[in-house]
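Input sequence (665 aa), recorded before submission:
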Amino acid sequence: MDKTEFKPFVPADSDLKELTFKAVFLGVLMAVVLGAANAYLGMKAGLTVAATFPAAVVAIAALRGFKGTILEENIARTTASVGEALVAGAIFTIPAFVISGVWDELHYWESTLIMLIGGTLGVLFVTILRRSLVEEADLPFPESVAAAEIVKAGQGGQTGAGAVFMSMGLATLWELFKNSNGIQLISDYTRDYYILAKSKIDMLGTKMDFGGGFLAESPAASPALTGVGFIVGLRVSAVLFAGAVLGWLVLVPLGIFMNPSLANLVNGTHSWIDVAEQVWLKQIRPFAVGTMIIAAFYTLYKLKDSLFAGIGKAVGDIRAKKTKERDISRLEIDLDFKKIGITILVIAIPLYYLYEYFSRSIGGALILTLVMVILGFLFAAVAGYLVGLVGSSNNPISGLTLSSLLIAAILLVLIGVTGNHGVMAVLGVAGVVCTSAGIAGDMTQDLKVGHILGGTPWKMEIAEIIGVIAAATILVFPMMAMDQVYHIGSPELPAPQAGLMALMAKGIVGGQMSWPLVIAGMIFAIGLIMINSPSPMLIAVGMYLPFHSTAAIFMGGVIRWILEVILKKRGATKEERTKAENKGVLISSGLIAGEALTAVILAFIVLGERLSGIKHLFHGQQVSALKNFAITKLGVENPSAIAGMLVFVALLYLLVSMPLKASKK
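Predicted structure, token format:
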């Protein structure tokens, strides 16, 4: 059957303004803001969300007053989404330098170089792959199509910006009253430990005392995490929460029960809650890492056909490009491939020196540079292909990164590069590959939106490079501030993927792997695969994250399910369902941005206080008086538990009632 001829929203012969200063400037500004928000979200929850939707809405609203064209809006959105994509790759790897102990704190120049080199290579690789990935009719590009529809609707006066900024404001206020560096009348969650009666079990003729209990913990009162759950839906959030239930309500009690001597740690200083948290941190997390390792390779194995198909199409497209001689439409013009090849070779030079600085080995640096360029291109093809199938929010770049880390680690061990320098070199490879794959996936999605709208590819590619440069030079600062205030690797900022990378690098290169626990986790992952369990990787991440975080994400998935059930009972049309879901996604995006940006701003305020010695607003006497007043009037010692649960009532209204109203408009 012949395929229907594709017609973009803006015709090829159009001369609308596109790559302008105002469009790029707005895009860079949004890239920094949305990137900082996702840096916090990613290190807190282990997930990031695509910035394409809120960026599209803000671009439409902001450029309308400047008579911006739809193609300028497309450029602004394209540039903006770079921040989220770049930081998604960065927070999965760069914090691993701190968690592994090879850095005492985040280093600006090294981190910036990793992001800058990886991000630029990602843009260049996808430019080569664009035609084979973006113009393939059999790839649905779900998020690209949705983003394009939002932009089209904006041409008729419907922006959705009000929903984004309204939810941002509410989440900002909530975070001010919740954050420990703000006013903090509300705590994030509550927890308690319930001790069970001791049991005597006959082991080899000897009576053994065993005791244990269960840690009860509420969902985090977090609009951002709930918004994440709404966006990913019930299926993903339920699988993630299943991992938390398994880790916290099965393995942690089992670990305590099987170690009776842990009761000796409970004294005036330490409680059963402290013991449970240590069991999770020191035993369950390494177990989860083992599960992640097998799950990552299993994911890649399932994608092997997509991998080879994407690479084959890319190579074929390059050959076709060389033999094609005719006037082509602006819709088919990319950056010059020869110049791209030369640029990749030029970028390999600072990449080599970065790896030589890390590894202190000329041979090791040469091998790592070659490995990175080859793997970077291969994984860019995979990331782009996956985004075409499932969208960039579900792009498993951590699995791709883990593969490159293992390859680099094994090669370094073989040539004798070990210790801290070997760990840094391996993490350097992982960082560049991860940022490259993150940008590759996001850019493929952006180029598809542009393809639907009628954007010029080479102009979008230029905008992406500008966005990478701006984001790479700025986004390290909020990451450094959050590390100083919230501490990377702590329960407040666990950075799960970075923890996995750190453990793998130190385990293989540094010889410090907790192999018994890791191997047990690997065997567990094999069991999950054998029973065809949904997403072993998500289950492992659920075990690795704090219980209150995954519970809050699950609450968001339940709210999304409630909305879908109501729409189904009302017999909503496909168009009405789409309107409702888009409204919910926009509100969720605002909730995520509001809470995350407030946490980042408060981190900068506290850091400024430490450097200057001046107490900031939230540490004044007025705040203490406000807290005392609230406690006195409510008549309870901890009003935060009551107020914290009320947020889910408000979120239920925001994410169900408002989308239902939007579906009828």
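Checked by second reader. The chain has two domains: 21-155+328-508, 171-293+539-663.
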